[in-house]
Amino acid sequence: MSISLLLDVADVSKRFGGVQALDSVGLQVVRGSIVGLIGPNGAGKTTFFNVITGLYPADSGIFLFDSKSYFPESVSKVTKSGLARTFQNIRLFGEMTVLENVMVGCHCRTKAGLLGAIFRFPSTRREERAIREKAHQLLAYVGLSDFAQMEARNLSYGHQRRLEIARALATEPKLLALDEPAAGMNATEKLELRELLLRIRADGKTILLIEHDVSLVMGICDHLTVLDYGKVIAAGKPADVRVHPEVIRAYLGQGAA
Amino acid sequence: MLKSLFAHRLSRTSYVWLGFIALVLLPWVVGAGGGNYWVRVLDFALLYIVLALGLNVVVGFAGLLDLGYIAFYALGAYSFALLASPHLPTQFASIAAAFPEGMHFSPWMVAVFSIILAALFGLILGLPTLQLRGDYLAIVTLGFGEIIRIFMNNLDRPFNLTNGPKGISGIDPIQLFGISFTKPLDLGFVQIPGLYLVFYLFLLLAIAVAITCLHLQDSRIGRAWIAIREDEIAAKAMGINTRNMKLLAFAIGASFAGVAGVLFSAFQGFVSPESFTLWESIVVLAMVVLGGIGHIPGVILGAVLLAVFPEVLRGIAQPVQQFLFGHVIVDVEIIRQLIYGLALILIMLYRPGGIWQKRGGRK
């Protein structure tokens, strides 16, 4: 395995009852790139995300992250090791403020314990200040500074998606896995999102992206993997994948190719 | 001095001082107006505040519905009852031999012991229920609360540990720093009655617990609890070890109840399983929900309201019925339960966040 690979998984299988949701799926993510995972509805993209982040236990598979072998069993441990994700159906902490949502993201990189929380030692206060400051910075980074004190559930849809990204960034991930970040966004919001993603990459992060919006995926991804019925049917540069006969068949139906 | 106080808008510290003075004077005012009976009601209200704040950590912060919370209160109460009463020495010759002057552990020591014991039982309850949420968790915790009470009720056989339904009496009164809380304290210029001293002691405890809760809420741990309440999967995705955080919530909530239990048992001088029924768990939960779930000032308000209200009702319902009908038609206890039920339904319908809920978007 090359050192330039941040994520290298192979032979991932997952079965739900009679449905083979994932069938020997392999995927590689090069450091500093944006990799797209696409496919028709029900192809297994989100299942794949859930498996590599430890939400569903895999039936089998070889997992390498940051040159270290891991078996995704616990979501929180995967996050701690540097793989953060967002959710297709937005999962914010609705009754917390926008700022607090991002502060929760700092949880796994901070360490104040019970006694620190109760007695507020100087070190705890310092840490709290640092968390608050970092959260403010991240909100500025995704353009949500004006909404810091608003309850997260009152944000607009597009802003909620941005907040999920800010919250994931607060866990200081090496790999940011985004599950349909552009779903439900209008054209302007998509454009802003595209800029945000490019900026995140420019700042040294790697992105794995599930997305349906073809122009967004084709525009920013360095590499694409296409899933259909739980199998990888094509992988490569966007321009090559676009004309791949299997991909055209999967999206447009038999005979179209 | 007074002039300058009113000339400016009162600062935060002066509010705190005014509140403090009001609280110090409260037992004197209430005592002068209603006698010792009402000071006792105040003392119990403070214990209920501690209980409600503890339950709020579990239900309000971490979102874990606990219907057996009173069991931890029972553990604290029975710990002190057993360690500071003649019960064990009279039942067991070996214990009588080991403590020739009787068992008189200090409330301090037993309080520390009870914190640990209750927290331990919190973990025992928490561990098997980690995967449960909502209704399922409520059923298991309800069962746990009943199990503890039934143990207390039946452990008079084969050996008499808890004296069964008859309960344990002759428990040592509170005594700290050589001050007895049953006798008046003579300060020279003023005599403070024992009931008032108890009020001050419980007040200190309630303030300490409230400050602890406020600090917890606004900390890394409090945020993790609230995140779990809001969305457990997303909380995990933030790298939060949800298992440990839930167990911590159970343990912290339980330890508050344990301390309150010790003081309850020393204050009453008597404990029996009757004080720890499911109804008591429900009353504490009602305090949290009615006052403002997850909102500390609201929870305190709820505890005070529901602790004082039945006593007010007792004072009103009987004479009013006597006056109107010549005899009592509906028992006060039944009226109380009716009004509780109605109040909860109305709150759920019109103000689901509680009477004093947090304003949208906290600090």
Structure description:
The complex is a heterodimer of chains A (257) and B (363). With 257 residues, chain A is an alpha/beta fold. Chain A has 10 helices and 10 strands. Chain A has helices spanning 45-52, 75-80, 98-105, 114-119, 122-142, 157-169, 187-202, 214-220, 238-242, 245-252, and strands at 5-16, 19-30, 34-38, 60-65, 68-69, 83-85, 175-179, 206-210, 223-228, 231-236. In chain A, the strands form 2 sheets. A 6-stranded mixed β-sheet of chain A has the order 6-7-8-3-9-10, sandwiched between helices. Chain A has a 4-stranded antiparallel β-sheet with strand order 2-1-4-5, with helices on one face. In chain A, strand 4 (60-65) and strand 5 (68-69) form a beta hairpin. In chain A, helix 3 (98-105) packs across helix 5 (122-142) and helix 3 (98-105) packs parallel to helix 6. Chain A starts with a strand and ends in a 5-residue tail after the last helix. The mean pLDDT of chain A is 93. Chain B is mainly alpha-helical and 363 residues long. Helix content of chain B is 70%, strand content 3%. Chain B is built from 15 helices and 6 strands. A two-stranded antiparallel ribbon of chain B has the order 1-6. Chain B has a two-stranded antiparallel ribbon with strand order 2-3. Chain B has a two-stranded antiparallel ribbon with strand order 4-5. In chain B, a hairpin with a 4-residue loop joins strand 4 and strand 5 (191-192). In chain B, helix 2 (12-34) packs antiparallel against helix 9 and helix 4 crosses helix 12. Chain B starts with a helix and ends in a 13-residue tail after the last helix. The mean pLDDT of chain B is 91. The interface between A and B is large, with 47 and 29 residues.
